[in-house]
């Protein structure tokens, strides 16, 4: 950028990450899911991004992550080129983008979900400002979800509070492969106290990226069975959310976590992201549940780290269990204390 660059427009958003309970694995067309997914956003794990538009300068995208210019700017530039067919004004400006996460990049939390969620919210707000439309409208959030999907599939679920569904399902006529929809009504109050303890088994780079894993579903021997299973699990999980059926909630969530990794283990070529300590944590969580009769369960993303899900009323006992039995199997005793979150927030400065 040149020294006398004139500041034109600016937008800034804080967007949470999310954790899927029914997993999306496998893509079709461009960034559309092979099966529907259901997730909830986190409160403490978020990305803050600000976008400034400039008329002059010598670089299309200057992207700064935690104060340092980052090569991630190349991915953002490709993303902007793709969405410029919808927002023609994008071609008229250069972009200066600042972004940072509230969590370590390799924490087993989907940083691409919160990053592209925040980026999409900034672009949608700038577009609505250009055209004079109301930014706090249903149309605004849906557009942001659609734009987020184009950057990272799971990001489309991060723009809504609490629980959301992405992908066509018989449950809702409004469900779509193009954007997520929020589950705003009817969720049992017990789930407002949902907690997520992220147990850090390994913070290293994954041996196989999620994008490679998604592609391996194209010719997967169990593809059709997996799609059918996801549809059934989303129906059962939604019913559990409405009725407060914690036993069913636990059964579906753990079935989904292990099914995701079963798909990886049976793809061609196959791969294994779970570590010995991941399996030890799973076994200890299940033993604790049986012994204490406290409703706890685990979910896992495409990596080795374990998300221990529990409820607010059991917080003292579960945290004591984490300290006494689980931290020995975490990398340097690290874990992240999180919970179900709310919708993204606009940044004022």
UniProtKB/TrEMBL annotation:
<dbReference type="GO" id="GO:0005524">
    <property type="term" value="F:ATP binding"/>
</dbReference>
<keyword id="KW-0547">Nucleotide-binding</keyword>
<dbReference type="InterPro" id="IPR036554">
    <property type="entry name" value="GHMP_kinase_C_sf"/>
</dbReference>
<dbReference type="Pfam" id="PF18376">
    <property type="entry name" value="MDD_C"/>
</dbReference>
<feature type="domain" description="Mvd1 C-terminal">
    <location>
        <begin position="198"/>
        <end position="324"/>
    </location>
</feature>
<keyword id="KW-0444">Lipid biosynthesis</keyword>
<keyword id="KW-0443">Lipid metabolism</keyword>
<dbReference type="InterPro" id="IPR053859">
    <property type="entry name" value="MVD-like_N"/>
</dbReference>
<dbReference type="GO" id="GO:0008299">
    <property type="term" value="P:isoprenoid biosynthetic process"/>
</dbReference>
<feature type="domain" description="Diphosphomevalonate decarboxylase-like N-terminal">
    <location>
        <begin position="16"/>
        <end position="171"/>
    </location>
</feature>
<dbReference type="InterPro" id="IPR041431">
    <property type="entry name" value="Mvd1_C"/>
</dbReference>
<keyword id="KW-0067">ATP-binding</keyword>
<dbReference type="InterPro" id="IPR014721">
    <property type="entry name" value="Ribsml_uS5_D2-typ_fold_subgr"/>
</dbReference>
<keyword id="KW-0456">Lyase</keyword>
<dbReference type="GO" id="GO:0016831">
    <property type="term" value="F:carboxy-lyase activity"/>
</dbReference>
<dbReference type="InterPro" id="IPR020568">
    <property type="entry name" value="Ribosomal_Su5_D2-typ_SF"/>
</dbReference>
<dbReference type="InterPro" id="IPR005935">
    <property type="entry name" value="Mev_decarb"/>
</dbReference>
<dbReference type="Pfam" id="PF22700">
    <property type="entry name" value="MVD-like_N"/>
</dbReference>
<protein>
    <submittedName>
        <fullName>Diphosphomevalonate decarboxylase</fullName>
    </submittedName>
</protein>
